[in-house]
Specification:
homodimer, 352 residues, four-stranded parallel β-sheet, 14 helices, 12 strands, DNA-binding
Chain lengths: 352, 352
Amino acid sequence: MSDETHAGRGRRPTIADVAQRAGVSKGLVSFALNDRPGVNVATRDRILAVAAEMGWAPDLRARSLSTNRSFALGLVLRRDTEIVAGDPFFPAFIAGVERELSPAGQALVLASVATGLLEADTYRKLAAERRVDGVFLADLRAGDERLALVESLGLSAVTLGHPDIESPFPAVSVDDVDGVAATVTHLVGLGHRTLAHVAGSHDMLHARRRSAAFEVACAAHGVEGRVVETDFSARQGGEATRMLLAEESGRPTAITYSNDLMALAGVAVAQRAGMSVPHDLSVSGFDDSDIARYVYPSLTSVATDAVEWGAVAARSLLASIARVPLADTELTPARLVVRESTGPAPQTHPRR
Amino acid sequence: MSDETHAGRGRRPTIADVAQRAGVSKGLVSFALNDRPGVNVATRDRILAVAAEMGWAPDLRARSLSTNRSFALGLVLRRDTEIVAGDPFFPAFIAGVERELSPAGQALVLASVATGLLEADTYRKLAAERRVDGVFLADLRAGDERLALVESLGLSAVTLGHPDIESPFPAVSVDDVDGVAATVTHLVGLGHRTLAHVAGSHDMLHARRRSAAFEVACAAHGVEGRVVETDFSARQGGEATRMLLAEESGRPTAITYSNDLMALAGVAVAQRAGMSVPHDLSVSGFDDSDIARYVYPSLTSVATDAVEWGAVAARSLLASIARVPLADTELTPARLVVRESTGPAPQTHPRR
DNA sequence: CCGGTTTATTAAACCGGTTCAGAAGGCAGC
DNA sequence: GCTGCCTTCTGAACCGGTTTAATAAACCGG
């Protein structure tokens, strides 16, 4: 006689059940729950008590439909799996986002897309289905088309870093120029005169800016500083290092990398070539991931607080969705953390 | 005269607009879209054409409300930020999940919770709000209370690995026993007679099983094999190594770690103590993260295909939600990847 | 004790889909 | 021509909330 589906014994209470039990109308329950003015305090308390007693919580689907909001924020990851996996940034960023979203009753919808072609479709789909109220725009690119796209889709957004074009969205940024400059200053102070920077893909603004900051800092100190572009992967970080160290003349005595993963691969390449870090070659990373502290030699790196970044970005996006006008936010700048992988420049020739 | 909010010019078309334009009723549009039987082929094509022309896509919120499904799956991460960040497993797993979910019109809702106390509440909230149709249960623990909780909440689920208790949910597992056994065999074959395993927290079943497999394998080979428990972090991986290497007698000549992060920290500790890897100490990791290939010495590790795991888990969960009865799935077992960090045992005493 | 304002509450419309009972039309068989 | 059965399509109810217009009750100064 009983139906075959009875998952979770008994139908869940709806707002109508609560209203009936409390002897009021549906509307009043709704008012009480969203504590609107114009509800008698005693009534309100009674309604809330009944709701709590019945274990009722508003169904998000119904709420979404009537309020035309999704109570969810989206993050689209475009990087290749390999690179996302090695990069500690996103997990930390997400943890920070979550810290804000969870108490605000919002959820994070994650979409990861392998090839760049589908990226726009992913945003379109998120918007068409009304799956999210806003999105985080990470890994900004030059003249990023996503800004116009996301705006035309009617989504709110916040950018991680400043776009290089006019943007309708608030930006939350961490200035990494100082960190890069500090690294160069640190290395020059150690006697290095020929530096190199292994950058991430110049399609990405932050990689580009780090490269530019590196070149500016080198020029300011009057030292040579060349840049090699990679895709951010350990593989290419290693290859770039191999290439740099193979130079007959003008071989760098210090290499800065745009992330820790590449820096570690760089250290490995140097060691494999018989060099000692930092004796023959100084190396510095970026992001200051946990592992940087625990390798040998421990890795000099530039630290950014990704968790905080996520939290602030989430707050900004929520405010933006709530139509609170918002200025751009600058977080505490990235700072250099000196460890063992950087040391005095070798005297004459890097190899004994 | 025009209102101040006109984000996305013009109201989006609803199913009623499509119906009117196609000269049919709402219901028929719905039927056509979900290609139900009983719709004239010509009519169906016309409806679809009109819908496409108007750029209409069903509003997920409305769909969710009427079908009582959320079209979203949840993943709750409980680990500390530090550990999640260093671990390549989740990003890869998520990429695999996404590969299946996206074409199926489903989304992934991510929740990360810092302290264990709130974990149950997170599942409860996900269920109470009807935010997701099912969840992935990762990092299973002994007698995991989440199984009963999630079932009582009426959610579907799939477990990553086999629980140690009766489970109402399908399991998708990768057997890592073979990989661990292969590692021990490999090391014993290299002449090692005193091994150690630096395990993750024994609260987690997979850490526990790897430890057990290690002990069984050592016993089978008649060699000594001790286990040290950690929390999976690089810090504790390093500390465990320090402790093991400080032993006066019975110091291991080979250490296997339950993840690559700890293994790297272990290598660093050994090198810092003046030992050479693999000359004085052999080291192996677990997960075969990208970086394992690119460090020096490159890291022997046990590889599991996390992307595939995610994809299969997602498929299973979707099937489970669709009430398709499902057997447990075993993926291709973890396999040992031998690299430079393991070598012949030192002759007499591990140090020179 | 009355008109007017404020406060508390209700009933009903609405959000945008899905679903179901039944109507309309076409066709076969008797 | 009537009955019965498909196939195709419509209209309305429904999912569970929010929101608004209308109403009832209380208050208040004169």
